[in-house]
Structure formats: structure tokens, C-alpha cells
Amino acid sequence: MIANDPTPAAARGTQPLASTLSEAARLVAAVRGGRSLNEALAKLWRERPGLGAGARGAIQDFAYGTLRDYGRGDFFLARLLRTPLAQPPVHALLLAALWRLETRPEAAHTTVDQAVDAAAALGADQLRALVNAVLRNFLRRREELLAAAERDDVARHRHPQWWLARLRRDHPQRWRSIAAQGNSHPPMTLRVNARRITRAAYLARLAAADFAGRPLGEAGVLLEVPLPVALLPGFAEGLVSVQDAGAQRAQALLDARDGMRVLDACAAPGGKSAHLLECAGVELLALDAQPERCGRIRENLARLGLVARVLEADCHDRAAWWDGRPFERILLDAPCSASGVVRRHPDAKWLRRPGDIARFARAQAQMLDALWPALAAGGKLLYATCSVFAEENEERVAAFAAAAQNCRRIQIEGASACQLLPCAEHDGFFYAVLEKRGA
Q1: Which domain covers residue 414, as residue numbers?
Q2: pLDDT reported for residue 150
Q3: Active site amino acids
Q4: For residues 114 and 22, what is the distance between their CA atoms, to the nearest angstrom?
Q5: Beta strand segments in 254-356, E
Q6: Fewer CB atoms inside 10 Å of the end CB: C or N, the chain?
């Protein structure tokens, strides 16, 4: 698309395909080296402040697409290279080029040509011939390699083998669809700020701007086509926020009402805190252990015209944030594997290790233990993750409830918990409501 567009790149804020490939390769190489994609992107934007919106979008598309399909690309390269490449950026360049050859087969000649130029841009002029040979060999052997990929779990489902094994164990009837959703493009859903506009009025504003959306859930608007936030009508004025429909379920499940004291124990970036404040006049304390993340909470609340106390503190350390007055509602949106939102964070599939899940589970158990004493008798704690792994979800909550004698589980729509699996309308989330028994 970039290479075939006759409009000069500078005029449309994009750049030549070779430049996009080389920048995406640097990002993928950084992830292969252990850095998160968000960190790598932030570093790139700092180093290249002059990149236009079109160029940034293209680089992100290539990086995200390559990482979503990383298991497949790696499978192909294992059969196309005699020995692994010692230059990580060139290896990543081949992954990005293979992704484009699969997704844009009609532009194969342009992709190969521009990938060769990208190798030079990466400082690997001596490997131009190798890049050309590998990609042309893929095109010659395309049918053979695609058939082989269909017989390999990692290449076919584009997830690590240990991840697929967990999905099979936890969701034996749905694991294939969960993996497929993890490789898809996520939906873009807005949450209407009920304190400033009705959903019907906001849908009218969208339509007036020639953007299509439909109601979803209690306050959501599902966009037909994702948009940059800068184009969203009323975003800067705080009329809407971007929040997945699954994440929007937290507000209703916590059931916070006017006058209640509410704790959001792991609040950044503040979406769930903001939703609570949009729906009820609560006294809310939002915690996060990192100062920059607290800054994001404050920025989001300020844009929406909402007020809460935001405190830089670790929820494990009650002495740092609790004055002894109990909270009637506590939201624990616990750090987790992010296995339910992996289509938004495709690097997570390849950065996570099998032992990480048990580590997250231990941390989640410690958070529940730390927060429970701060909950008032008769109060409710909503445990939430964006995971689809049982060890972080049902197993964690069941173990805590069994050990805490004053804990009662509240049913959600007739079940002991709510496990949302990723689909076309929302990401994967887990929710459980725990009530503290007592006078």
C-alpha cells in the first residue's frame, strides 16, 4: 500500500517501504532482546520526533503484525536459513518481510526489493544478497512451507507451545478460537462519560463526523473502524474514553454507590477509576506504585473532569496508604500475564515464560491478603484480571476464599465468576466478587 501509493511519501506523512521495514525490524529485534514493544516504540518516537502520523502508523502495523505472526515467521526462517543470523536486526527484518509477503502477496516484488534496501539501512550492506535469496526462496517454496506450517502447532496458531498447552488445559473446547482471537486485530470501543453527554447524543456526534459506531454494553460505543483518538469528536473535552467493553464490566460488578469509600488498588492508567466516578459520587483512592503511572491517572481524570485522591504507593504496604477507615468497595485489577489482551500486546506471547504464570499467581495472592483487612464488613472486593489462564483466575480466587473464613463469593449471572473470552466485541477478562461477612 505504501509503495504503490503514487502520492509522494512526504506529502502524506509516510515514508518509503524500506524505511518502514527497517524501523519495524529494530522494534522486533528489541522485543527479541527482551524489551517490551511499548518501551521500544517510546524510544523510537523519542529518537525520531519528526516522523509523521502516517509513518508511525505504518511502522506500528508492521511491528504488531510481525509479532502476532512471530511463531510462523520463525518457523519459516528455520527452514530458509542454513544457520541462524548473528545480526538480530536483519533476522527481524526477514520476519517483517515474510509477514508482508504473506499478507500482501500481490506486492511480493516490491517487498523483496525494499527489504534488500532496508538491510542496507540497518548497516548490513553485506547481507543484501542473503536477504534477497531468503525471500525469493520463500516465494519459490511458498506452497511447501505453508503446508508444513499447518502441521506445526506454533506456526499454525502463532503462540508458544507452552501457551497453547495451557489454553488446551483450561479451555479444552475453546482454545483454538482463543488463539485465533489472539492473532486478530482488536476492536476499538469507547466509553461515554455519562456526566457530560448521553450515549445517544454522542452517537449522533459520531455520525455527524461520518464515523460509524453502535451501542455496546451499558455505556460503550463499538467503532466500525478504529480511529486515532485525535479524530474522536469530543475526546479532548472528556466526552469519551477508549476502553474495551470487557473492561467496562468492572463498574457494574463492583456496584459502588453514592457516598461509598472505594479503593482502586492497581489503578493505572485510570480507566476503571474514571468509570466508577462517572457513574457514582464515591470517595475514591487510586493507587499505583510507579510515579509516571500515577501521572497518567491524574491526566485521564483531569481530561474527564473527575476528582479522586491519587497516591503513589504499593498496595502491599497498607501503612503507606490506609488510614484505618475501611472501604466499602475495593477493586483489585491485578497484574497478570495479559493473556486475554495479547492481540493488543503481541510481544507478551514471546516475552512471557512458563514460570511467569506461577509468579503472577503468587503476587495476586499476596495482594488479596494485603487488601482484605481494609475491606469493611459487608463490603465487596472485585478481583479482576485480563487473563484467560485458570491459575491466575478461578484457582487464585478459590484458594483465597477457602482460606479466608469471613469471605463469601457472590454469583455473577448465575456462576461463581465471570470469564470473558476474547471475541470480536471484547478482550478476555476474569471477574470474581468477594463479600466480607460480618456485622
Answers
A1: 249-436
A2: 97
A3: 386
A4: 10
A5: 261-264, 283-288, 309-312, 327-333
A6: C
